[in-house]
Amino acid sequence: MDLLSHLVLGFGIALEPINLLYAFLGAVLGTLVGVLPGIGPTATIALLVPASVALPKATAIIMLCGVYYGSMYGGSTTAILINTPGEAASVITALDGYALCRQGRAGAALGMAAVASFVAGTLGVVGLMLIAPPLADFALSFGPPEQFALMCFGLTIIVSLAGKSLAKGAATALLGMLLGTVGLDPIGGHGRFDFGNPDLLSGFDFVAVIVGLFAITEVLTGLEEQYAAVVTGKLRGLWPTMNDWRRSLGALWRGSAIGFFVGVLPGASASVASFIAYDVEKKVSREPERFGHGAIEGVAAPEGANNAAVAGGMVPLLTLGLPPSAPLAVLLSALMLHGVRPGPLFFQQHADVAWALIASMYIGNVMLLVLNLPLVGFWAQLARIPYPILAPAIVVFCFIGAYGVRNNPFDVWVALGMGLLGWLMRKLEFPAVPLVIALILSPMLEAAFRQSLSMSRGDPTVLVSRPIALVLLAAAVASLLLSLWGRRRRAPVTAVLGVETD
Amino acid sequence: MRTLDRASGSALVVLGLFAAQQALVIGVGRPAEPGGGVMPLAIGLALVVTGLSIALAAGRRTGRPAWPASARRGPMLRVVGATISYFALVGWAGFLLSTALFLGYLFRAWGRYPWWLVALLTVVLAGGLYAVFDLWLRNPLPAGVWRDLR
Description:
The complex is a heterodimer.
Chain A lengths: L2 H12 L2 H19 L5 H12 L4 H26 L8 H12 L3 H35 L3 H18 L4 H16 L1 E2 L6 E2 L5 H4 L4 H19 L17 H23 L5 H15 L12 H24 L5 H12 L8 H4 L1 H22 L3 H7 L4 H20 L2 H19 L5 H23 L6 H4 L1 H23 L13
Antiparallel strand pairs in A: 1-2
Chain B lengths: L1 H25 L2 E2 L2 E2 L3 H20 L12 H24 L1 H15 L5 H22 L14
Antiparallel strand pairs in B: 1-2
């Protein structure tokens, strides 16, 4: 069968009333749960996997994909409204999204996020259909040295973007990496830095760290600065203006392309895609100083990238059985629960599920746009809730978010500790974003590094002797040098991921 | 800011040295079979270098951080104290009761809302969140001493 007949088959299944209903339910549920701070796509899908067992396999997978898209969008909503990213990929959206919200332009930021998610998600699905096989071949050539180089590239981008001081950005990234080493050694399985404590042996959960560093720090800042509400003045412009569209169009295309290609690479994730897209936008902008202070393209690019990365991530998942991110790992477990094992033969053995899933991703994007655009005004009004009501409620959400992932009270104390640390870091002008990203990337980076050395029998030149790894490492060095050069040229450089914004 | 940068840089150096020392205890293995201490050792040494560069660059810093005004310290400590009490209490008293106490206290003490509004908001928020997460999504919240009543 050719592409067109496959698509007809997929849409035929996805457009069945029962599947449409569950795609809609998934999108609504995902958005609703994703809007709650600290509950990201991974936890949301995991919560609903048991509920999907009773459904036919195509219907169940369609619903869970709807949940994934919905919770990604919901996570961006909280990032914009209360500076609390629902998941790692929304961390970067919070920078300019929340700044726009504080300026009374929450509606414009939410509207842009919805449209960017739709356009990028749709482009990503088209990309998935057309170039999945050759890209899967390329992704297959990524071994541990290439994965290590890719992680290094991601980390240097974060550090180079971080605040006024490169050293402080690097310090917080190293702190995040050190936190990432606490617990079981990913290769040897031995405990590290656990000091005989079983809670430390299980490591730091990144949801608890994110919740603390962003949400609890924000509550403390709100208390200190006596916020009456996140937005006290009149909400201006519930929709993006023509100027906003003009500024964001290029960012949206670039973000979608970057997101899709980064999403395809094993080990990369929607969060890495959003950081790279943001960095590229800042570098191509004529007014980079606007970033971090309410640049609408600072919302469009990462939102486009993280949604396109979701579709990109489906390529290694469906064709190789390799989930490139945590939510897709949960989705893989759901597929296997239904007796469907993704891999090279997936499109042949389960053509109905494969193409229905692709078609439903497109339908899910349309549903999310239809669902969320009319609700932009409603979500924006949340920013006007009096702060003495909102802040205690946020603390309770933080508790649920930190506790809910592992049902471990230790994570709740970690969130509180991180909140206090985040507040202190803000005072001392240490950026928080590199810490979170390094914590997420650290285990993957370490595993790739040690596997590289093992496969080369201890020869470290393996990290630079393979062309893709060499190009990625060169890009990492170039990113740092460019950042240093930019700081000298435009000193004092305006912080982008720095103290004013995170 | 100068003193604080020196202090934070020094703290990072100490942390880096501690991480490096612990990494050696964990074991760095050999080149062909790197041990679990390799990454912590590299991170620790990098922290030492970064901490030193922050401490040494502190001489060029001016200004001072804006610490909370004295009038704000009391309310901040009150909320932090309430949060610590809430997190400590929730394991024993359960989610519903401890959340109701926490929200009720802050709505009244911070927001100065009338009692009827405090009661309404507390019941709606605590009850609503419990219904959504515990009952609907089956994501168990701490039940505390009420566990046997379920």
